[in-house]
Amino acid sequence: MKVIGYLRVSTGKQGESGLGLEAQQTAIENFVRQRKACLMKTFTEIESGKRNERPELAQAIQLCRATGATLVIAKLDRLSRNAVFLLTLRDSGINFLATDMPDANQLTVGIMALIAQHEREAISKRTREALQAAKARGTRLGNPNGAAALRRAGKGNTASLRMIRDNADRHARNLKPVLDALHTEGITSLGSIARQLNERGMLTSRGGQWHKTSVKNLVARIRELPLDNGAATTIA
């Protein structure tokens, strides 16, 4: 049994300290040992539970599709209030297991998503009503110096470009084992690799379909990654 692990903590501070991650990692390792499974890779998401973007989850799902592995989540209860995550998991088409909720399946996850969405809408409604009441009392809302604050923090175009580059590097690093596996199977041309990636439901770093050019760019980016991330993939 091949396994892909998925961990999550809610803040960058927790991610740096390892708080919460150790227990999740231990849960997955115990599961792998009990099932005599093969842990291929572990993805760690560090973000707020209120955010919808989950790039590490997307990479984990893509790798599960490419390799036929089962996604193992250490703590599904930590994610039970995030409707987007639950719906993504339900509709992913891959096999998944949760160490803390072994009986969870597409049906139960779907029900959890409906409850989470209802709670989010209720919270959003209460927030809007509170803001309207504050505005009616004459309270000034928002930050008039917001743009200046961003400039002082250095969060301009340079930071955005760096984030895009880092995301592309992470995407390339996660796809390298897939390209290596395809190369082992004799699938080496740019066109054939693009077809295989598209057939397996894997997307580019920007969420698009693969073409010869995008595969060529992916291979070039993999070759530029630091050596400790693995040797470059050879494309004929």
Tell me the strand percentage band: 5-15%
CATH fold-type name of the largest domain: Rossmann fold
- Gyration radius, in Å: 21 Å
**Largest beta sheet: what is the strand line-up?**
2-1-3-4
Output the number of helix runs: 9
Report the CATH C-level class of the largest domain: Alpha Beta
Low-confidence stretches: 13-19
Major sheet description = 4 strands, parallel
* Head-to-tail CA distance between termini: 31 Å
Oligomer: single chain
Helix/strand/pairing category: alpha/beta
The total tally of domains equals 2
CATH architecture of the largest domain: 3-Layer(aba) Sandwich
Helix content: 55-70%
Instruction: Write down the secondary-structure element order.
Output: EHHEHEHEHHHHH
Q: CATH H level of the largest domain: which superfamily?
A: Resolvase, N-terminal catalytic domain
Mean pLDDT: 76
Compute the number of strand runs: 4
| Shape label | globular
What does this structure look like?
β3, α4 (83-90) and β4 form a beta-alpha-beta unit. The protein has a 4-stranded parallel sheet with strand order 2-1-3-4, with helices on both faces. It folds into 2 domains: 2-112, Resolvase, N-terminal catalytic domain (Rossmann fold, 3-Layer(aba) Sandwich), CATH 3.40.50; 155-229, no CATH class. It is of the alpha/beta class and 236 residues long. 56% of the residues lie in helices and 10% in strands. The chain has helices spanning 12-17, 21-35, 55-67, 83-90, 106-136, 146-152, 157-184, 190-199, 212-224; strands spanning 2-9, 38-46, 70-73, 96-98. The longest helix has 31 residues, at 106-136. The protein has 9 helices and 4 strands.
